[in-house]
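Reminder: ligand-aware prediction takes two inputs, not one.
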Amino acid sequence: MSNPLRAVRGMNDLLPTDAPLWQYFEGILRAWLKAYGYRELRTPILEHTGLFKRAIGEVTDIVEKEMYTFVDELNGESMTLRPEGTASCVRAVIEHNLLFDGGKRLWYAGPMFRHERPQKGRYRQFHQFGIEALGYAGPDLDIEHLLMTARLWKLLGLADCIHLELNSLGGAESRARHREKLIAYFQTHEALLDEDAKRRLHSNPLRILDTKNPAMRELVEAAPRLMDELDETALAHFEAVKTGLDAAGIAYTINPRLVRGLDYYNYTVFEWVTDRLGAQGTVCAGGRYDGLVQQLGGKAAPACGFAMGVERLLALMLDVGVAAPADVADVYLINVGEAASRFAQQAAETLRDAGFNVVLHGGGGSFKSQMKKADASGARYAMIIGDDEAAAGEVTIKPLRGEGEQQRVALAAAVDLLKAFVAPASSRQL
Ligand code: HAM
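Here is what comes back for the chain with histidyl-adenosine monophosphate:
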């Protein structure tokens, strides 16, 4: 017997029972993004591999170990499923010259792919909502992003369980000085380095600091700190960000060990973290990346942004008991008989014209079995049509959740009756 077909490990189906929470979440995010003047950008899921190598950095976990890369057999080109959204966003901004008339505030959402070891909160296909502000030197935009995220946690009911960690990676000169010190430090402890660290010692020593190897934790903890190398400009930028946070009453922890796993960052970096999700507690992360636009071939433009992990935020919402509004129809339309079935199609369309959500029972069955389905569907009303109702152009309306009496009326009157109890879907909040 052949093996049963299964989804790829670490890649999840989103089932209809889970969908209402996703839709609720997405609805809140869309309104929130609009409130801050961000506009949507959609880029392809597949890009040329070189884009991610250049943007994220050749010597990073993502590029070295986690990308889904394959050769397109039709033209021999190396392609990669996007592991994150910033690179694609910057590529699109350059390609379409979007900064020609000044800065842009953009957002994107969708699946990302990383070949990591799957565990709770860590998937091989996961979803991000990402925000990028390009063409702004900051620190006002850095602050805007932190205020935005703080507001979002409130909107999602998560403000009490997420906290902010902040660091500055300084500019190129600070990092060059730090790099020399790091190399010297790790060289004196070379025996304690694992294979990855040895390989990265000269190519990308900063990446040794975000090692996932617990055996190296102590060594990394005692390593020279970038924070100690920051020059005046970097310090002033960092101070301004902190002042902005203080003025808005947003609490944060300075974490000098926060270096992020992607090479493009400079100045402000941050992570919003929860301790309620186990090891995968970072729900949102980002920072400033002033060199990336130029590095990818565009005219130099400062930029900053962040991305959040949708699965992690939804897990957190479930953990704290945030419930999505029920995803149920207004009316379940029961129909028994041939004439009834024809009239029911017409009645369902009439109800939809009036703005109601209607499930039209399919597949036949007795009144009793259809009524059971109507009840189980969670709909507020059953509309019942038999052949004699159909002949009279009438319907029977039966409240399923205790609002009013069962009544047999003309179809038009049924619409009015429903309007008295149920607001049309078009006027409802998600
Ligand atoms: P990142 O830290 O690699 O940053 O990912 C951002 C968020 O995506 C993480 O904090 C986490 O919530 C979620 N995430 C990452 N990997 C996984 C996974 N395997 N399973 C589930 N969730 C995951 C970036 O991607 C940057 N592009 C963020 C950014 C935007 N920086 C500037 N602009």
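The first strand starts at residue 39 and ends at 40. The chain has two domains: 19-171+230-319, 331-427. We will return to this case in the review session.
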